[in-house]
Specification:
Blueprint lengths: L8 H13 L12 E13 L5 E9 L9 E4 L2 H4 L14 E6 L2 E4 L2 E4 L2 E8 L2 E2 L10 E2 L5 E2 L20 E2 L28 E2 L17 E6 L11 E6 L4 H4 L5 E7 L8 E4 L2 E2 L10 E2 L2 E3 L1 E10 L1 H11 L46 E4 L13 E3 L14 E8 L7 E3 L3 E7 L5 E7 L1 E6 L2 E2 L6 E2 L9 E7 L8 E5 L16 E5 L35 E5 L17 E3 L37 E4 L7 E5 L2 E2 L6 E5 L18 E3 L4
Parallel strand pairs: 1-7, 4-15, 20-23, 22-32, 33-38
Antiparallel strand pairs: 1-2, 3-4, 5-6, 7-13, 8-9, 10-14, 11-12, 14-15, 16-19, 17-18, 20-21, 23-30, 24-31, 25-26, 27-28, 27-29, 27-30, 31-32, 34-39, 35-36, 37-38
Length: 654
């Protein structure tokens, strides 16, 4: 860093001469870098249906002295949890906010905004077996999509020694797999160069107790590198993005001039368009706002996350290993002779091509209609406090951190639209929808376009503007019109649904928000098309859990068999008990939930949830009929027609 304050006239003269000699070169107007302490570490996320999914996430460290940049968890429950508590250690994306600064870079006016992220990597995993096995250390990196910085790493020679590339897998010669006339010529694929492993400087993993950090600079890190541009940007891991991104290593960066008690915030500064021939430039006013709220859309694939967690916890894991499903390889639990593959199985990452998210989140929170307040996100006003003026505006910063596209919409929002009249003047009027301000941190030209929703591809960011709702209004719902509105493919009214609260507005008292007292379990009757007269009977299978016994219930997420059906002696299956995933205190939950391993769960009387083995829950074959049940307690009746339904008890959440 070079100082801008000089007391010696001699130094001033020398600097002036240097500027004259280097007028077309670098500027010396660098500003002090803002700093944030950030940690990447393994954690878990407890989802609305009780499932606990392994995650990797960022957490904010202690504030750096003299730095005005801020970092906090996007999930308000995690952000407000007591330090050291289990809730504070839960997974949540983060939002980093940094003030926008300007100066001269390369002889022209521009941004001098600089951010240094001191990244600590605690992605270490100790295998359970064999005893004393060395911990697996997973390197990571950090990128801010659309911004410069973070380093490019060192390619190395042959992709060894901490390099940020991976050797391409061997592609053997092949012949055609269909019938051909004559001999089938072999095809030998051309050799491929090394593949990218990290898009930024890799940070080696250290123990969770270590305090080692690696500074990663973004923006005006050198005299010739431009600073960070104002806007909203996606932060994500730059190492194996298809693995570490879905595991939860992502967040938001906001570069802005935040509102104060006496002035509105400036999202994008004013500028003048360049002169084109004889046409003079046009002065474009700044985009101002009075409050803001980040809205980050995320996805969770519990199967892939569990597979990744199992792999990195396996002795001999190597992230450079290439997955193969052939016998004896890292993707196959069996050897060619049928014996268990105890040597290489799970020593590589699973194939990300099978990525199938089943949970959807907004700011790290999956909507739960029995706890809708958890998905209420109040707007912030920078250093300003009190009520946002009725004539003010709210900037909604939308970010898609998932791998699928989403189409968010803000229900009931209004925005001010500029309309050209027959005279050379313009009028402003309030219309439904929101105004598109910027895309991927780039301010959109011309009069802001008004829409009711916006298409967001993977990694896309949009800044949209809405008016402050009228006094007494409820919070504004935000949902995904692409219909990522489920949980684990079974929960209804879940997923990407949240509320934006302005001036203390609460969520609406809608019929879809279920109070614990409104839970209703309705009787079910299943009629079999195949009469059952002689045992053993053909089993009745309900392959779609959403069409089971709780499909027509209200607020029921699991069930417990209370009385046995008249035509069978079926009892609840017994699953091995392991470490509880819920505290022993509080109301007990129903049996038959999917565990974090994707298997069956049971609730012994008076105990909390317990994870069970993977696979479907198969009831013991009774003397009369066998029943096969999906792992959510959605139990089919006996195959005989017109059987009386058993009694079921709804399993509600606290």
């Amino acid at each position: 860093m070079r100082s801008n304050s000089f007391k010696s006239p001699l130094v001033r003269s020398t600097l002036a001469a240097s500027v004259l000699l280097l007028a077309s070169g670098a500027s010396f107007a660098q500003t002090a870098a803002q700093q944030i302490n950030l940690t990447a570490a393994p954690t878990t996320d407890t989802l609305p249906d009780g499932s606990v999914v392994p995650m990797w996430g960022y957490s904010c460290g202690t504030a750096v002295a003299l730095s005005t940049a801020t970092c906090k968890a996007l999930n308000p429950a995690v952000a407000g949890a007591a330090a050291g508590s289990a809730l504070a250690a839960s997974w949540s994306p983060v939002v980093i906010t940094i003030p926008y600064t300007t100066g001269t870079v390369n002889g022209v006016a521009g941004s001098t905004t600089t951010l240094t992220i001191n990244l600590a990597n605690h992605l270490t995993f100790t295998p359970m077996t064999p005893a004393g096995a060395a911990a697996n250390s997973i390197p990571t990196s950090l990128t801010i999509v659309g911004q410069l910085g973070g380093g490019l790493g060192t390619p190395g020679t042959g992709c060894t020694g901490g390099a940020t590339c991976t050797t391409s897998p061997t592609h053997a010669s092949q012949v055609v797999t269909w019938s051909t006339v004559g001999s089938a010529p072999a095809f030998t694929p051309p050799s491929q160069g090394p593949r990218v492993q990290s898009f930024g400087t890799e940070v080696a993993a250290t123990a969770s107790t270590a305090t080692t950090t690696t500074p990663l600079c973004f923006g005006n890190c050198t005299a010739t590198q431009p600073g960070l541009n104002p806007g909203t940007y996606l932060i994500e891991s730059g190492t194996h993005p298809s693995i570490q991104g879905p595991m939860g290593l992502y967040g938001i960066l906001v570069v802005t001039t935040a509102p104060t008690a006496t002035a509105a915030g400036i999202a994008y500064p004013a500028y003048t368009t360049p002169t084109a021939g004889t046409v003079a430039g046009v002065a474009v006013p700044a985009v101002t706002y009075n409050a803001e709220v980040p809205v980050l859309f995320g996805e969770i694939d519990p199967v892939q996350n569990s597979s990744v967690n199992a792999a990195v916890s396996t002795a001999g894991f190597n992230e450079l290993n290439v997955w193969s499903g052939q016998p004896g390889m890292c993707g196959n639990p069996l050897n060619a002779n049928g014996s268990q593959n105890t040597t290489t199985y799970n020593t590589c990452y699973p194939p990300a091509v099978n990525y199938t998210p089943l949970y959807y989140t907004v700011n790290g929170v999956g909507f739960d209609r029995t706890h809708a307040t958890n998905s209420l996100f109040p707007v912030t006003q920078g250093t300003a406090t009190g009520t946002v003026a009725a004539t003010g505006s709210v900037l909604v910063r939308m970010v898609n951190a998932g791998l699928h596209m989403h189409v968010p919409s803000i229900v009931g929002s209004q925005t001010t639209q500029t309309v050209l009249t027959t005279t050379p003047t313009a009028t402003s009027t309030a219309v439904p929808g929101f105004s598109l301000i910027a895309e991927d941190g780039n301010r959109l030209p011309g009069v802001p376009h008004v829409q009711s929703d916006v298409f967001m591809a993977a990694g896309k960011t949009y800044d949209v503007m809405i008016n402050v709702p009228a006094a007494g209004s409820t919070a504004l719902p935000v949902y995904d019109r692409e219909l990522s509105l489920s949980g684990n493919a079974t929960e209804r009214d879940a997923g990407m649904l949240a509320y934006i609260g302005v001036n203390g507005a609460a969520e609406p008292a809608a019929a879809s928000i279920i109070a614990p007292t409104a839970v209703v379990a309705r009787a079910d009757t299943y009629a079999s098309l195949i009469p059952c007269t002689v045992a053993p009977c053909a089993p009745v299978v309900v392959s779609d859990p959403g069409k089971g016994v709780i499909a027509n219930d209200t607020g029921v997420y699991g069930v417990t068999l209370m009385t046995t059906p008249a035509a069978t002696s079926t009892t609840c299956p017994t699953c091995p008990t392991r470490t509880p995933i819920r505290p022993a205190t509080g109301p007990a939950r129903g049996a038959g939930r999917p565990s974090s391993t994707g298997g069956c769960s049971r609730r012994p009387a008076g105990t909390p949830w317990w994870p069970g083995p993977p696979g479907a829950c198969t009831w013991p074959t009774p003397p009369t009929c066998a029943l096969l049940i999906p792992c959510r307690g959605r139990t089919p009746r006996s195959p005989a027609a017109a059987r009386s339904p058993p009694a079921w008890r709804p399993a509600t959440r606290p």
